[in-house]
Amino acid sequence: MGCFFSRRSDRRDRASSGPDDEARGKDGVAVGRYSWDLREKVDPKDYMLTGMKDVTAGRLPGKLNGQQFVIQDCENCNIYVFDHSATVNIDDCSNCRIVLGPVKGSVFFRDCKNVKCAVACQQFRARDCSKMDVFLCCSTQPIIESSSGMKFGCFQYYYPELTFHFKDAGLSIFNNNWSNVHDFSPVPGESNWSLLPEDATVLDYVPLPDADSEFSTIRVSTEAGKSIVPLTRAARGKGSDESCLIVFFSDDYTTANARKLIDKATGKGFVLIQTKEVSIRPEDVKRVFQSNAEGLSEFITKGQVVALELNGDGVVEACRRIAIEVFAGTKVREIVLSLEFLPRPTSPRTVWPFF
Known about the structure:
Blueprint: H1 8-17, E1 21-24, E2 30-33, E3 48-50, E4 56-59, E5 69-72, E6 78-81, E7 88-91, E8 97-110, E9 113-127, E10 130-138, E11 143-145, E12 148-154, H2 162-168, E13 182-183, E14 193-195, E15 243-248, H3 254-267, E16 271-278, H4 282-289, H5 297-300, E17 305-311, H6 315-327, E18 334-338
Parallel strand pairs: 3-5, 4-6, 5-7, 6-8, 7-8, 8-9, 9-10, 9-11, 10-12, 11-13, 12-14
Antiparallel strand pairs: 1-2, 15-17, 15-18, 16-17
Helix pairs in contact: 3-6
């Protein structure tokens, strides 16, 4: 056992180095001001929109920086949140149009009606809501409860900071379960939710910011071709019996390369069914890629892979040609396979590493 001795002067030195400043209290005793006392005070009103009617409101980039946000008791408003946040709760709103930048956690609508919105989040929930049109990017399965007249479409939006906001929120643009909705309170013989028309665009439901508003300086686009999140057909089904799986292995340009192939393939008339960004195990590589698995194990250690499913007659050969054309002479490592010839799970417990 050892002992530690301190001289009185040492204690004085440490005590005097703690506070950033000193003041005298009523009894003449020194009162220190510490660094946390000097932090900028947070006003809760900066993170709320409440009781608004017939106005355009929201937050510009950099105003939330990952904080929680609340929208409540708003009527007939256009609301634009061009920033990333932790969670967003939206309560008792009606006849509003809402755009939410990426949300790291949940977006929870409660007691809302006639709301049209574009939302990117990790979790989407709606309870006691009616007649909502939602353009959604959601990492997990969207959930509705005690709600009706809910319609969903694939998120289609762009503003310059959106890519960075997705990264700040920890969301992948390739993990989007927008059409895989779970209803906790189904009604026998009826459906509380459906899909928006396939040709629907955000602009049909949510207007661009007014020219005289503070948000008019944000360069916004609702065109599918400019959307940060790829437009997928998902639950709408497939128009052809032929589908193609394309897997991009991790490097600094995985996202850009995947988007490049998507643009080329959809430009030729093929349809993007679904996308996924996941980690895969060595045994998955052997099971899925079989004769193509040799040499791939080293690539999966570098990070997550991006998988795309494209559909259309002749899509397998077309994508092989596109890959050769676009990535010839580069170090891009991708693999193109026909889904028709991939092995199927041998039991219900088998989990696919992609879709």
